[in-house]
Specification:
Elements (H helix, E strand, L loop, with lengths): L16 H5 L20 H8 L4 H7 L5 H5 L6 H7 L1 H19 L9 H13 L1 H4 L5 H21 L7 H16 L5 H14 L11 H20 L6 H16 L18 H9 L10 E2 L4 E6 L2 E6 L19 E5 L2 E5 L11 H4 L9 E3 L6 E2 L5 E2 L5 E8 L2 E8 L3 H4 L1 E10 L4 E10 L4 E8 L4 E5 L2 E5 L5 E7 L2 E9 L6 E11 L5 E9 L5
Antiparallel strand pairs: 1-2, 2-3, 3-4, 4-5, 5-13, 6-13, 7-8, 9-10, 10-11, 11-12, 12-19, 13-18, 14-15, 15-16, 16-19, 17-18
Helix pairs in contact: 2-5, 5-6, 7-9, 7-10, 9-10, 10-11, 10-12, 12-13
């Protein structure tokens, strides 16, 4: 194995590198075409063949929103590859040529560093599939474009947005260096800095978004795979970061093996989570909490409760961040019961913006105001917000005491939330308190997963889960009702319901006690 030490240079790529691979002999200069590590889905590939030209039209046009822009990463190439045979290969070549004709000049949003880096990785990872058996003219044109990608990344990789987009740009830059036989030392130094910038010491990604955590881990696994294919020994820091990021990914999984919906995340695909964890040497048991990222996990029997118990996402990683202090999700086995509204997988508006509101989370709001101010530029303004969380465990169960002062400035109120989960599960109790000024309306919401059927009956909410399991919700201290809600977490907009407990603060604030109990547990 070739070590990494001694490969560093002052430039991201040597000065002659772009000129050489852009020459007439460019095809022969591809020293290594690393394979894409992730499988595609043949059904999705077949759908692309039968989409009546919609993907082709989107690739030809200037992207008008985030959804359209993401198509230019060519992630869908692996779905065409999954079809097998020549049909997918021919379509891939057609779409690559179409893209080159429309956008090959190197200008426009589609050449943003993170989009270009992801596209370059996709092309190199599927080169054997769509280009190896093509004619010299096609392969030369693709290689010349890859040279343009490499030159752009050499100039702009640090300009990529912080977080996962920066890792996408760096992955593309490393893929270019390795594919064309160039020393990757400068890229590796930048990757090393990104590891410190993007991950807490306990392995959680600084975005506090479970899907972003998965995406970041996948990029690191790709970087590791590129180095091993070179072959080069991956730096120890990279190996350790990948290993440390495994348990936090497991932390965010519900019993259905999909991810919780916090801070712009959605459920994602269970197979992707499985594949990522399978490539982590020792992903281990999920932790019970992250003090740095600000999350807690209460798990007993079949009952799992995930809690946002930390400060809002830090600047630089908060694009798409949500206003959700003390929000919870909980599930019974493989069935989600209480959820946050989630976020559309494609980041489309207006639902993406609506889903960022405090009211779109299973927590408490005062006067329909966000507990954390949402920046129209895409981030959150935490200001001097304080969040506290204390956890204790015993034979009788798990306790969590939480508070935040996001409503102190506008209303003179402190929100406290106390949670208890019995040692056997099936019994989740809570108390939400508002301490401070009188006269302010508040709403406590528990958004229900669409598969849960709810009805208000005899002062309680009866919850019927698929498989005939039933739960009951009771509350005291305010008015109990059911209201409409939406769920965006599984990639589509689905109508659902929310349990709503409404009231107004009095001279001593307000206190709402509530409980979810599975059928068979005492009242």
């Amino acid at each position: 194995m070739i070590g990494v030490r001694g490969l560093a240079g002052r430039r991201l790529f040597p000065a002659g590198f772009p000129r050489r691979i852009g020459s007439a002999g460019a095809v022969r200069s591809i020293a290594l075409a690393p394979r894409d590590l992730w499988p595609g889905v043949s059904d999705r590939g077949q759908a692309l063949l039968n989409d009546s030209g919609r993907l082709a039209a989107a690739l030809e046009a200037r992207p008008e929103d985030r959804t359209a822009l993401l198509l230019h990463r060519f992630d869908w190439m692996r779905d065409l590859r999954a079809i097998g045979g020549d049909q997918g290969r021919r379509e891939a070549r057609r779409l690559v040529l179409l893209w080159l004709d429309a956008h090959g000049s190197g200008r426009g949003e589609v050449w943003r560093a993170d989009i270009a880096g992801a596209r370059l990785y996709s092309w190199l990872g599927s080169f054997e599939f769509f280009a190896a058996s093509a004619g010299d003219l096609f392969r030369t044109r693709v290689a010349e474009s890859m040279a343009m990608h490499a030159r752009l990344l050499a100039r702009t990789v640090e300009a990529a947005p912080q977080g996962v987009p920066r890792l996408a740009a760096l992955t593309g830059a490393l893929a270019a260096a390795i594919a064309f036989g160039q020393p990757p030392g400068a890229v590796l130094r930048r990757i090393d800095r990104a590891l410190d910038e993007q991950f807490f010491a306990d392995g959680f990604h600084r975005s506090r978004n479970p899907v972003a955590h998965l995406s970041a881990l996948r990029r690191l696994i790709e970087i590791q795979g590129l180095l091993r294919a070179a072959p080069m020994a991956p730096p120890q820091r990279l190996t350790e970061t990948i290993r440390n990021a495994g348990p936090p990914l497991s932390f965010f999984r519900h019993g259905d093996k999909r991810l919780a919906c916090f801070h712009g995340g959605h459920e994602s695909e269970s197979v992707l989570v499985d594949l990522a964890l399978a490539r982590v040497d020792h992903h281990g048991r999920p932790p019970t909490r992250s003090v740095e990222a600000g999350f807690d996990r209460l798990h007993a029997g079949r009952t799992l409760v995930l809690v946002d118990s930390g400060l809002p996402t830090a600047k630089g990683f908060d694009r798409g961040g949500h206003s959700s202090p003390l929000a919870i999700e909980f599930s019974d086995g493989a069935q989600r019961i209480v959820v946050n509204c989630g976020a559309p997988a494609d980041g489309s508006t207006p639902w993406n913006e609506l889903a960022r509101a405090t009211a779109a989370h299973s927590t408490l709001t005062v006067n329909d105001v966000h507990a954390v101010e949402i920046d129209k530029g895409g981030g959150v303004r935490a200001g001097g917000l304080n969040v506290e969380a204390r956890r204790s465990e015993g034979e009788g169960g798990l306790w969590l005491d939480l508070s935040h002062d996001g409503y102190a400035a506008p209303f003179g109120l402190i929100h406290r939330r106390r949670l208890y989960l019995s040692g056997q599960g099936g019994d989740l109790r809570g108390e939400d308190l508002l301490e401070g000024n009188a006269g302010w309306p508040f709403s406590l919401r528990f958004h229900l997963h669409p598969d849960v059927q709810a009805r208000l009956e005899a002062g309680a909410v009866q919850l019927a889960l698929p498989g005939r399991q039933e739960w009951r919700f009771r509350a005291a201290g305010a008015r109990l009702a059911l209201g409409p809600s939406v769920y965006l977490g599984d990639g589509r907009r689905r109508d659902t319901q929310a349990i709503i407990v409404e009231g107004r603060t009095g001279a001593e604030g307000a206190a709402v006690k509530w409980a979810f109990r599975a059928q068979g547990h005492g009242e």
